[in-house]
Amino acid sequence: MSATFSNPVLPGFQPDPSICRVGEDYFLATSSFELFPGLPIHHSRDLVNWRLIGHALERPGQIDLSRTASSQGIFAPTLRHHRGRFYLICTDVDGVGNFILHASDPAGPWSDPVRVAIDGIDPSLCFHEDRVYLTASAPDQAGILGAEIDPDTGRLLTPPELWWRGTGGKYPEGPHLYPREGWFYLLISEGGTEAGHMITVARSRQAGGPYEPGPHNPVLTHRSLDHPLQSTGHADLVQAPDGSWWMVFLATRPLGYHPMHHLGRETCLTPVDWPAGGWPRVVTPLPRLLPLPPGPAAAVQALPGINPWVFRRTPPPSLFPLCPALEKCLLPCLPVSLEDAAPCAFLARRQTSFDGRFSARVRLLSDSCGDAAGLAVVMNERHHATLLIRREHDGFLVVAGQRLGGLKIELARRRLEGGSAGLRLRILSDAYHLEWEQNGDWSELASVSPRHLSTELAGGFTGVLLGLHATGPNPATSARGEFHAIEYSTPV
Ligand code: 6LW
């Protein structure tokens, strides 16, 4: 058993991590934007091995994400625990705004949202003695707002005030407040969530300031460093049972030149040296291998997580039941395509490794031209690739296609014998190989560069999803895609 770990500890599109500890158990929440279910909650006993235990947004009636634009919706959350209750405060951008969810079990069920009357993003809660402080990134990016709040009703008890402007980086955001040794430490991110990202800290004897910036800022940044982890930022601190301090934060893993990343912003971990009465410090640049935190790793590995499958946007009732289980899957050929900013029959999971295989046996049950079913790798409506069985007037085709910004491209097609085939994405760091088989012999139909699905090209805050997709031209269709032997494998 190795005595070290490497980052990311929660790979794939899992940004803006927030963490809390209850006894020996750690719980972590990440942002999810237009995905449904949203606000995934992971559990760990050792900070390195994580398993998905639920989603805080798992009911369509909690927050309607059916019309949420790509990379809008559910931004950075903060997860806290106080006197037996879990609190998750977050923002539905271009939606209901800031809200709090409550739960007694972090796996759920979580409450319906309680609205919080403050603008801005990245809200956070700090429980200290008999008070609860709210911090958030000001809507005009002027700095960090602060107020007292009743976290059960969401009611502000004091008017929001500007508590700290940061150290001068753009977009001061992602605030978290930590009371310690008579100080209030305010940890934030600055520089924007791209290559200039950095984590800074200040402290004050009063929650409302004035705040004195730390002498070692930035606490962590990888800007201008030649390191596989880039854009390090958006951090949260947690103390282990042995008194050691640890920090979760987001980072990207760009490839090639110019560097481009497609897996999204991923959750990473580092130890923190934080002497009592002193300042938190992190070894920078981050070592590739870090010392394992305390805790029984084996315990978590043995425990199963729940299925990680999601939709982009709240699905229509005809699709919703699919979420909880996925051995075999039937998707109706809804008259909505991956190019529409609307809920479509696309059931997916985050790609968590540069290399891997995503495959299924697919049968298209259709007798009308234009119906299609198969696999897709998606960043957003304008950046995705598909490998689909398509119904034609005189039979069936397997077709590879790509949407690349304003371009819609058919890459290749082959005639099929009947409407069933094995479909597979053979995934490498520099190519998605789109493959098919009908007689056991796999052959490549086309290949697509991950750079065409990168954030640098597509924009936004998310990461690529691998999924099952069905679509067609007819609103009243009974056509559907039947998916069996659905597998996603990655190198150990
Ligand atoms: C999030 C902000 C950020 O709200 O990006 O990296 C925004 N940090 O704090 C969306 O993830």
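^ (Z)-L-Arabinonhydroximo-1,4-lactone complex. The chain has two domains: 4-302, 310-489. The pocket of (Z)-L-Arabinonhydroximo-1,4-lactone is lined by residues 15-16, 31, 75-76, 121-122, 173-174, 189, 193, 233-234, 250, 461 (CB under 6 Å).
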